[in-house]
Specification:
Blueprint: H1 17-37, H2 45-52, H3 56-62, H4 66-91, H5 97-113, H6 115-128, H7 133-156, H8 162-183, H9 189-204
Helix pairs in contact: 1-2, 1-4, 1-6, 4-5, 4-6, 4-7, 5-6, 5-7, 5-8, 7-8, 8-9
Length: 211
């Protein structure tokens, strides 16, 4: 997934910070690379440590289990997407609220448009929708984090309930990302424009909440 922000690997207290950080990142990177190569299937711990050039002891200093490593990879991927969306929206700040929201939606979809990113996204998403409760909750956290970024431009565009509108838009673009990732097709310009226009219209729609 797009790399725009620094991630914080799980490091236990007492380990030399720099070396520990490098080893934890090596394990995360190796795990992701193996998941991508295996089309989302979980690699064995033995394969992860071999790819990282580390030992089983090193693995278990940072991760209680293989599930814990996968959860960390999924969480890092979600944080990276959010950081990239924030970056693209900030770059579009001068264009006004519609330009910011458009940039955010397009930034999410880019994860399915770039071939290399799409492979990583597919591997991460396949592990964010099951296996462990915590990994499954990452999808919810991703939608909520994107909604927090979309809420201000939604308010400026006149949404009656900006957070509700932002959450709906975030849920829609994440669902689209999952669809395009798992079909292994890239959304074309027409599909992207249609989704952006559809979500922008929804943000501007009157709030139909029932009292």
């Amino acid at each position: 997934m797009t790399s725009e922000t620094n991630s914080s690997p799980p490091v236990r207290a007492g380990a030399p910070e720099e070396a520990a950080g490098e080893e934890a990142l090596a394990l995360l990177d190796a795990g992701l690379a193996l998941m991508v190569a295996a089309r989302g299937r979980r690699p064995r711990v033995a394969d992860i440590v071999a790819a990282a050039g580390l030992s089983n002891d090193a693995f278990y200093r940072f991760f209680a289990s293989k599930d814990a490593l996968v959860e960390a990879i999924v969480e890092r991927g979600a944080r990276t997407v959010v950081g990239y969306v924030r970056h693209r929206m900030a770059r579009a700040a001068d264009g006004g609220p519609e330009a910011r929201l458009r940039a955010g939606i397009e930034a999410v979809l880019r994860q399915a448009s770039d071939e290399d990113l799409a492979r990583q996204t597919r591997a991460v998403l396949s592990n964010a929708t099951g296996h462990t409760p915590r990994a499954a909750h990452v999808t919810v956290a991703l939608v909520d984090a994107l909604a927090a970024l979309f809420a201000q431009p939604a308010a400026e565009l006149g949404a009656g309930d900006p957070m509700r509108a932002a959450r709906t838009a975030a849920g829609g673009v994440v669902a689209a990302l999952q669809y395009w990732s798992f079909t292994e097709e890239a959304p074309g310009r027409a599909e992207t424009e249609h989704l952006v226009g559809f979500l922008l219209a929804g943000v501007r729609a009157p709030d139909s909440r029932r009292w």
